TrEMBL record:
Functional pathway: Amino-acid biosynthesis; L-proline biosynthesis; L-glutamate 5-semialdehyde from L-glutamate: step 2/2
Domain Aldehyde dehydrogenase: 6-286
Keywords: Amino-acid biosynthesis, Cytoplasm, NADP, Oxidoreductase, Proline biosynthesis
Record protein name field: Gamma-glutamyl phosphate reductase
Gene3D superfamilies, per database record: Aldehyde Dehydrogenase, Chain A, domain 1, Aldehyde Dehydrogenase, Chain A, domain 2
PROSITE patterns, per the entry: PROA (PS01223)
Keyword set includes Oxidoreductase: yes
MF (Gene Ontology): glutamate-5-semialdehyde dehydrogenase activity; NADP binding
Family in the record: Belongs to the gamma-glutamyl phosphate reductase family.
Physiological role: Catalyzes the NADPH-dependent reduction of L-glutamate 5-phosphate into L-glutamate 5-semialdehyde and phosphate. The product spontaneously undergoes cyclization to form 1-pyrroline-5-carboxylate.
Provenance organism: Desulfofundulus australicus DSM 11792
Length: 419
């Protein structure tokens, strides 16, 4: 334990020292480093894929779920996407040093607010090696050093990735220590990070409910909480049912193991009889296990009975809960009771009802006639994301560059003194 604590603290100290210099590095140097990191990922993809193969094989032997294996797996296409994400971040405006506003006080002082880096960001996450790249790239562009602690399932992948991108960044002028990886997979390393006040400025946990709860309940370092996604699609009365079918299948099946996938389908009773039999057969053919309320089972008898637990579950798998509701009010009440304030959607032709859903549903992202799968930093034009925050302070939704900065006040005077 003492050795782990020493090593974690030493890496955090290296990151703290690097952050001092990163804070005032030019945009040109940071962008050059990001492009070099992207090129190095592609150039060294065989090395990364070999390491990832070891992790995936071990994960299958441990009996990891299909969803976790999918999150863990790297392919040439996924590495290309990771590299493209870094290039996209390089193309974005640099928030550091941006003066958001200036105002003149009666005494002649000019007061302004300037964007500055957070400092050192600690990332604690599970079996998603793409997070390693996204976090490093976004933190670097926002002038932050980052201390990464990924899950044990992806340790070989993360070692290979960090070795590749850290060397490329340093070669482009980024100070050593800006991208640090905690290689200890023991939970003790996480426990040390949670208490590193003065070395880490903020912790961002990204993973399942258990990981997030552990960090939030035990950290003394400030935490930005990324939330689990018990997401809903509500099909309103009078909805375009072909559109609804397309959105539901995409939201559930396109990539079920991620937090913005739909977990519960709510259908207005006026369209349930026309929509559900065919739609649920399509979902069944796609490998989805459907669990439904009594009204759903009257329409589609093969559906498994849903329990109270089903309404509150983030499956991260090809499982879907379905409920027929009598009104939009009942749908919104269900979302209020069981949702995790991540992503919620309505399919409707009624403008006024769409506006009401947008106004009354409390979530980081609320959609009208679109899949919940779009809750993603890249899809929103942020280049990438470091996580999706479901809290309200200090960031909410997909967190991009600006969410990785804070601000300071700058004041210009001409010799004023306070009387």
């Amino acid at each position: 334990m003492e050795q782990i604590e020493r090593e974690v603290k030493e890496k955090a100290r290296r990151a703290r020292e690097a952050a001092r210099h990163l804070a005032y590095l030019s945009t040109e140097v940071k962008d050059r480093a990001l492009l070099a990191m992207a090129d190095s990922l592609v150039r060294n993809q065989e090395r990364i894929l070999e390491a990832n193969e070891i992790d995936v094989r071990a994960g299958r032997e441990k009996g990891l779920s299909r969803a976790l294996i999918d999150r863990l797996l790297l392919t040439p296409e996924r590495i290309a996407d990771m590299a493209e994400g870094l290039r996209a971040v390089a193309s974005l405006p640099d928030p550091v040093g941006e003066v958001e506003s200036m105002w003149l006080r009666p005494n002649g002082l000019q007061v302004g607010r300037m964007r500055v880096p957070l400092g050192v960001v600690g990332m604690i996450y599970e079996a998603r090696p793409n997070v390693t790249v996204d976090a490093a790239g976004l933190c670097l562009k926002a002038g932050n050093a980052v201390v990464l602690r990924g899950g044990s399932e992806a340790i070989n992948s993360n070692r290979a990735i960090v070795a590749v991108i850290a060397a490329a960044a340093e070669g482009a002028g980024i100070p050593a220590g800006a991208i640090e990886l905690i290689e200890h997979t023991d939970r003790a390393a996480v426990n040390v990070m949670l208490k590193l006040n003065g070395l880490l400025d903020v912790l961002i946990p990204r993973g399942g409910a258990g990981l997030i709860r552990t960090v939030v309940e035990n950290a003394t370092v400030p935490v930005i909480e990324t939330g689990v996604g018990n997401c809903h699609v509500y099909v309103d009365e009078g909805a375009d049912l072909e559109m609804a079918r397309s959105i539901v299948i995409n939201a559930k099946c396109q990539r079920p193991g991620v937090c913005n996938a739909m977990e519960t389908l709510l259908v207005h009773q006026q369209v349930a009889e026309e929509l559900l039999p065919g739609l649920l057969e399509d979902l069944k053919a796609a490998g989805v296990e459907v669990r439904g309320c009594a009204k759903t089972r009257e329409l589609v008898p093969w559906v498994v009975p849903a329990t109270e637990e089903d309404w509150a579950t983030e499956y991260l798998d090809l499982i879907l809960a379905v409920r027929v509701v009598e009104s939009m009010e009942e749908a919104m009440e269900h979302i209020y009771r069981y949702g995790t304030r991540h992503s919620e959607a309505i399919v409707t032709r009624d403008y006024a009802r769409a506006r009401r859903f947008l106004r009354e549903v409390d979530a980081a992202a609320v959609y009208v006639n679109a899949s919940t799968r779009f809750t993603d930093g890249y899809q929103y034009g942020f280049g990438a994301e470091i996580g999706i925050s479901t809290q309200k302070l200090h960031a909410r939704g997909p967190m991009g560059l600006k969410e990785l900065t804070t601000y300071k006040y700058i004041v210009f005077g001409e010799g004023q003194i306070r009387s």
